């Protein structure tokens, strides 16, 4: 976790980025020409809100820098370090243009873009915040006081979190590799464990980061993809349950902290299924990864049994171990009768055929 107690914000500027309109290839940026001045109280509250966002482990992710070309967010951020205010404003406009170009779908909303730089423990950082707007306005028509009120409402109210954050931090400027020189992060308030990825337009197209090496996301997505593969390719309730239990056991009890997708496939699938597993799953996860259960911990203790497309049984994994599903020709009626009579089976649920 990043310790932001010592964060020193040097400069802030606010631009607006409009959504894509009919006939346009992407959105457009509306620039401010001056640095934005917070009062001391507002600035301290902003720091607190940034610290709160960074502490939300299920929405704050360490990523990798993918794009370090001359016209990238990374390069513009480096040029801001120790720059004049005039150059800072110019480069901030270039960053606003990058966000506008990432608005290549009409579903991506307009927003305010805060761009700031400063230092943490004497290391330079650039931080950008995009807030989605619920009200239409132009920057030029607002006086400074009204803009302060809007910023307070969007960022400083504890009840509202409609924003995304990109963060680039200097690590070792003498290193040879880009990702050793700087680390990068993203906070996405709209991310939930039900999503496969963060907002790609923001972290990838705009910031030039990638999420392929984030252990929280890889751990979650491999787990869900294996479950989907089992449901699609395995026949028979008990076989499905056994394989799903195997991935649960691997996640819960593996002590090395390393998950090897290829090894899991070889241990649990026949040759034909292993080839299919390699095509569907192995190609997406070619390397071992460090297990991080942040986004799947609840699923490991709860599970579900799919009866029909729109009907499921859900509950603790331990309790679901006592559930059996029989259908069609695989029902042994005599054995079932005996199990009911001796109390081994407590309940039977029937599902009628739709006529």
UniProtKB/TrEMBL annotation:
InterPro entries found in the cross-reference section: Nucleoid_associated_NdpA
One Gene Ontology CC term in the entry: nucleoid
Protein name, per record: Nucleoid-associated protein NdpA
């Amino acid at each position: 976790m990043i310790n932001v107690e010592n964060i020193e914000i040097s400069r802030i500027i606010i631009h607006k980025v409009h959504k894509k309109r009919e006939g346009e290839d992407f959105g457009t940026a509306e620039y401010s020409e001056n640095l934005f001045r917070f009062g001391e109280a507002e600035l301290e509250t902003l720091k607190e809100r940034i610290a709160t966002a960074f502490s939300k482990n299920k929405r704050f992710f360490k990523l990798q820098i993918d794009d370090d070309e001359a016209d990238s967010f990374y390069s513009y951020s480096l040029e801001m370090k120790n720059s004049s205010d005039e150059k800072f404003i110019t480069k901030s406009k270039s960053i606003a243009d990058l966000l506008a170009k990432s608005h290549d779908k009409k579903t991506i909303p307009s927003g305010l873009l805060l761009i700031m730089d400063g230092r943490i423990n004497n290391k330079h950082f650039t931080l950008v915040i995009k807030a989605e707007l619920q009200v239409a306005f132009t920057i030029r028509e607002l006086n400074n006081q009204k803009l302060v009120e809007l910023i307070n409402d969007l960022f400083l109210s504890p009840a509202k979190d409609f924003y995304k954050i990109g963060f680039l931090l200097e690590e070792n400027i003498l290193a040879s590799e880009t990702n050793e020189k700087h680390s990068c992060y993203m906070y996405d308030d709209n991310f939930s464990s039900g999503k496969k990825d963060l907002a790609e337009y923001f972290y990838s197209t705009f910031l030039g980061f990638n999420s392929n090496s984030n252990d929280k996301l890889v751990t979650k997505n491999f787990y869900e993809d294996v479950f989907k593969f089992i449901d699609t390719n395995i026949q028979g309730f008990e076989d499905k349950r056994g394989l799903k239990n195997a991935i649960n056991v691997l996640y819960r009890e593996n002590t090395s902290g390393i998950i090897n997708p290829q090894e899991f496939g070889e241990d649990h699938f026949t040759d034909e299924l292993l080839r299919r597993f390699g095509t569907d799953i192995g190609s997406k996860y070619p390397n071992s990864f460090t297990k991080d259960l942040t986004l799947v911990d609840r699923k490991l203790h709860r599970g579900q049994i799919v009866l029909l497309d729109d009907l499921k049984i859900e509950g603790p994994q331990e309790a679901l171990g006592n559930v059996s599903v029989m259908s069609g020709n695989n029902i042994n009626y005599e054995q079932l009768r005996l199990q009911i009579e001796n109390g081994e089976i407590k309940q039977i649920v029937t599902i009628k055929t739709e006529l």
